[in-house]
Design goal:
Largest sheet: 9 strands, mixed
Order of helices and strands: EEEEHEHEHEHEHEHEEEEEH
Low-confidence stretches: 1-7, 14-30
Oligomer: single chain
Number of helices: 7
Strand content: 15-25%
Shape: globular
Length: about 270
């Protein structure tokens, strides 16, 4: 209220026997705010569970002045209660689809990457942060998470459910490709940060926001009308965008987004 993208990933192998209870490393408290980043869950070709996040998220937080720490799922009994108070802000990262059970959605053959453990943890953290004012930034899946967490719904496959929809599901090797424009509502918190009426953004999602939860304000839309950004009015920093700003930090508005997020976290 900076940043050189990298193809590298930060990973935790939860199958390592020597990992013990150290899957989550929380740095010692310092002047810089601690920003928790949620992790994606996947399985490699050997059937091992991998927790990961692209390094672009980490770089964005570091270069904006924050101290990133990774939040795996599950955290174990009492884990989120122990971790949450130590975080100054939370970045809800992208990843697989949210289970349709959480929003009464229409099941679809293209729904994939559902991880119940991740859904449960992130919805718990999201609702706590939305309630008590802890700064958070949702990106892609994180934007959908905010809407679902507060009672909204999703298109489970945009191409089949939104008439006249643009192609929003570009492949992951096109992270910096500017797929379409988004129109920004200027008289909003996020609009004031971005300070541009129109932005060119990337697009890597096949699901999107449908019915917007009560208590959320729409900040941006794509040319096909799909909602691309939302916020909680009067929240210290409760913002979520459907695009991936961590890959577009050559744009000053994206750098301002991360900078203001970290600044808000520093004051929490």
């Amino acid at each position: 209220w900076q940043i050189g993208p990298s193809e590298a990933e930060v990973r935790i192998d939860v199958n390592k026997k020597d990992a013990g209870d150290c899957a989550l490393l929380v740095p010692a408290r310092a002047m810089a705010p601690i920003i928790g980043i949620t992790l994606n869950r996947s399985t490699d070709k050997y059937g091992q569970v991998i927790l990961s996040v692209t390094q672009a998220y980490v770089d964005a937080v570091v270069q904006a002045g924050g101290v990133p720490t990774l939040i795996p799922a599950p955290l174990g009994k009492g884990g989120w209660e122990a971790v949450y108070p130590r975080l100054d802000g939370i970045l809800f990262s992208g990843g697989g689809d949210i289970a349709v059970d959480h929003f009464g959605g229409q099941d679809h053959a293209q729904v994939s990457g559902v991880e119940p453990l991740r859904d449960t943890l992130e919805l718990t953290l999201l609702k706590a942060a939305a309630s008590d004012g802890k700064p958070f930034l949702g990106i892609c899946r994180g934007c959908q998470l905010l809407n679902v967490g507060l009672g909204g719904t999703l298109y489970t496959h945009i191409a089949d459910q939104l008439p006249g929809a643009l192609d929003h599901a570009f492949p992951s090797n096109m992270r910096t490709f500017l797929a379409h424009s988004v129109s920004i509502e200027g008289d909003t918190g996020l609009g004031g940060i971005l300070a541009e009426p129109v932005l060119q953004v990337n697009s890597h999602h096949h699901q999107g926001l449908d019915a917007i939860a009560a208590g959320l304000r729409v900040v941006a839309r794509a040319p096909d009308g799909l909602v691309e950004a939302i916020e909680i009015p009067e929240h210290r920093f409760g913002v979520a965008v459907q695009w991936h700003p961590e890959w577009l930090t050559d744009q000053p508005p994206m750098r301002r987004l991360f900078g203001r997020f970290v600044q808000a976290a520093a004051k929490s």
